[in-house]
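Hello K.,

You asked for the raw outputs rather than the summary table, so here they are, unedited. I folded two proteins back to back in the same session to keep the settings identical. This is the first:
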Amino acid sequence: MSRKVRLGVVGFGAQGSSYAKFIADGLVPNIEVTAIADVDPAKREKIAELYPDVQVFDDYVTMLESGVVEAVVTTVPHYLHPQMGIQALERGIHVLLEKPAGVYTKQVKELNEFAGTRPELTFAIMFNQRNNPLYRKLKEIVDAGEIGKIKRTNWIITTWWRPQGYYDQSEWRATWGGEGGGVLVNQAPHQLDLWQWICGVPQSVFSKVAYGFRRNIAVEDEVTAVVDYGDGATGVFVTATHDITGTDRFEILGDQGKIVVEDSKTAVVTRLNKPERELSEAMDMDDVRKMFQGQFNPADFYTQETIAFESAWGAQHSGVLENFAANILDGTPLLAPGTDGMLGVRLANAIHLSSWTGKEVSMDFDEDEFLAELNKRIAAEGKFPERA
C-alpha cells in the first residue's frame, strides 16, 4: 500500500468535521487523519465517538509536538490562521490553511516570509474553487489569449444569504475583533481569489461598502468595488448577504472575445474572428445600416461555445486535500500555494480602507494605516483586544 500523509485537523467545527469525514469516507486516498485538536470538551467527546482510532488533543501545539502528525489543516477563526501556520512550520509540520490566510496583510506577510525560510515544507491554502473544473478551464482560456486582452470584468455574487440567526450564534461572529470583517472575509474570499487568479491583480480600488446595512452587525453585509487594472481596463465586484434569491454572474470582456459565467456551473465563451477594433474599423455605413435592419450574421464575426461541468459536493475540497498530500509525497505542483492567500486579503483590506477613507486605494496601501483603522473599530466594540 502506498504511503499516506498523517494529518492533524485543528478545530472540529463545520469545516474541520467535514474534512475528517471526507478522509474517513475514502475521498482523499493519500491522507489519513491521525489526530484532531479542539478546545471544546464536548467536541472532543464527539471526535472520540466518531473516530476511536484518532488521537484527540485539547491543545494545538501539543498535537504538533506529539510526533503523531506530519501535516495539519487549520480550520479555526481567521485571526489565528497566520499564527498557527507559523507554529506548525516552526516544528517542521506541513500546513494547509483554511481561507482566508488572515485578516490583515501585516500578519499574512509575516506568515509568508516565515514560510519562505522553510522551503522544504509544503504550505498551501484551501482555495477549493481553484479545483472547480469550470474555473480551471476558464483560466486556461484566458491565459492562452483566446479572448484577447482583458478590458473589463464584472462579478456579482450575492448568493450568500444569511439570516440574522446566523450572526447571533456566537459572540465573535460578524465582529471586527473576533472575525475581522463580514462578507469579504467570511463568504467571498473564494471569489476574490478566483477573480485575481483568472483576470490578474488590480492596481487600485474604489469602494462603497455598507456596514450593518440589512443585518444587526458591525461589519459589512454589502459591497460594491471598482478596480483599475491599468491601461483603461476596469472591474466591478458586488457581493452581499441579504439577497435571499441571490445572483452569481461573472463576465470577462476581452478585445477578442467574452466569457459569461452563470451560477459557477456554465460559461458561454465568445471568440471573435478578429479583434473588436478591427471588426469595427472594417464596417462602413452600409454595413451599419444592414446591422440596424437586422441583417446581421453572427457567424461573420464570432463563434460561441457553452462549457458546463457538474462537480459533486466535497469533490473540490477533497481535491485540494489530495493535491496538498501529493505535493508532500512526490512534489506534485500545488493548486493553491499558501503565499497566494495574500492576494485576497490584500484586496479585501484595500476595499475596506477605501470605504473608510472615501478614497481610491492602491494595492500597495499603507498597512499601518489599515491596521490603525481596524483597531479603531475593534476598540469601539469593546469586546476583543486590538491587533498588532
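The second followed immediately with the same parameters:
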Amino acid sequence: MPGEQHQMSKKRILFIHPDLGIGGAERLVVDAAVGLQQRGHTVTVYTSHCDHGHCFDEARDGTLDVRVAGNTVIPPNLLGRFSILCAILRQLHLSLTLLLTNEISKYDYIFIDQLSAAIPLLRFFSPATKILFYCHFPDYLLATRTSFIKSLYRIPFDWFEGFTTGLADTIAVNSAFTKSVFATAFPRIRLVPKVVYPCVTPTTTSLSKAIDNDPPFPNDGRKIILSINRFERKKNIDLAITSYSLLTRIQRCQSRLVIAGGYDTRVSENVTYHSDLVALCEKLGLKAATSRNFISSLSVPEDTDVLFLLSIPAALKSYLLKTASLLVYTPAREHFGIVPLEAMIAGVPVLAHNSGGPLETIEEGKTGWLRPADDEQWTAVMRLALFELEEKAIVEMATRGRERVLELFSKEKMAERLDGEFDEISDKRSIRGLVWTILAGLGVGIGLGTAFALRS
C-alpha cells in the first residue's frame, strides 16, 4: 500500500533553528530531532549559534549532528537593537549557504521553527524539499511595541511573518491554545495548523547520580518550592516570590523557594531581571543567594529563603525536581509550557497560572492546581501542597501526573506525530502557491541586496 510505503520509508530531515541555546523552543527542537532519529531517520540540525557552554546535552555530546552556519556576516544585533532584522538576515544567510553548497539536496524534508523568513527562498530554489513550519507562537504577538516608532518598525516584519509562514507545506503548533491564537493572528493563511505537543523525557546520567549522592545545597529539612523559567519579565517570577513571602509569615524556616532557569549574560533582560528579583526579596525581608555554577551552590548559607540558580545543567534540574514538593509555574498565557510536564513526570504537583498551555496539560486537583495571578490564592495552594495534604493524596497526584505525561506527551508520541505530518505533505503544490513563491523569492533577493549594500 502507498501509505505503508510512506510509513516505512526512511527520511532525510534537516532542522533549521536560529539559536540552539537553552529554552522551551530549543528543548522541543532537540527532542523532536532525537525522536525522529530514533525512528530511523537521518537528522541534521543547522543553527546560526550554538555555544557548547549554553546548550542542551544532546547538542554537544554527539547525540545530534549539530552544525553552525550563517553567523559570519550578520551579528545577532546592532548595538543591542534590530534583533529581529538580524535574526532574519542570519537565517537567510544560513539558508543561502545550504543552497550554494548544495547541502540542501541531501534532504527530503525541512523542519523550520521560530522564523519563517527563509521558507520562500528554500521553496523556490529547492522545490523538491518539503517544509514543515513549527509555530511556537506568532512572533508579532510576542514583540513589544513601546513606542510609535517601534510600532512602525514592526509593521513590515509582522506582514512578512504572515506571508512567509503561509508558504510552508504544512504547519504545526504546540497547543490548541496556540492554534486558536494562530487563526486570529493569520486569518489569511488557508493551511489549518496541526497540534503536535512538545514532549518531556526523564534524564538519568552519571552526573545526576553524583548529584543525588552529594546534594548541591544543604538538606536542612526545608520543603522546596521550585520555579524553573528563563529570567524574563514575561515569566512573572515576581508572583512566586511575593506569594512565598506570605507563606513565610505563617511557617517561617520550614520551606525554601528555589528559582532556577535560563540565564545568558549576553541578554540584558536576564541580567537586569535577576537583579530586580533579588531586590524584591530584600524588600520583602527574604534572604536571597545566587549560584552561578554547581560549585558555588555547594556553599549556600543554610538560612537562605530564596535561592537563585542560573543556567542549571540537566542533571541539576533533575535533582531539583526529585527534591521539590511543589513546582510553581508563573507565566500567563504561556503557549505550552514544558516545565509542568517535567515536574509531573518526576512526580511533583504543579501550581500554574490558569491560562494558555497549562490548561491542556494540568488536571485541576488531580495533577496540580490552576489559579489566577493572585498572591493569596497561590499562597493557599503552597500551604496545602507542602503542609496540609496527606501523603496518600500526594502519592496519588504524583502517579496521575506521570501517567498523563507518558500517555500524551512522550518523545515517542511527538516523533510519531511529526513523522505523520511529513507523510501527509502533498507532493503537488498549487500554481497560486508557486507564483507567490517566485514573487517572495524576488523580494528576498532585493532585501538581501539592500541589506548588504547598507553594510558596505
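The domain at 206-408 is CATH 3.40.50.2000 (Rossmann fold).

Happy to rerun anything if the numbers look odd on your end.

Regards,
P.
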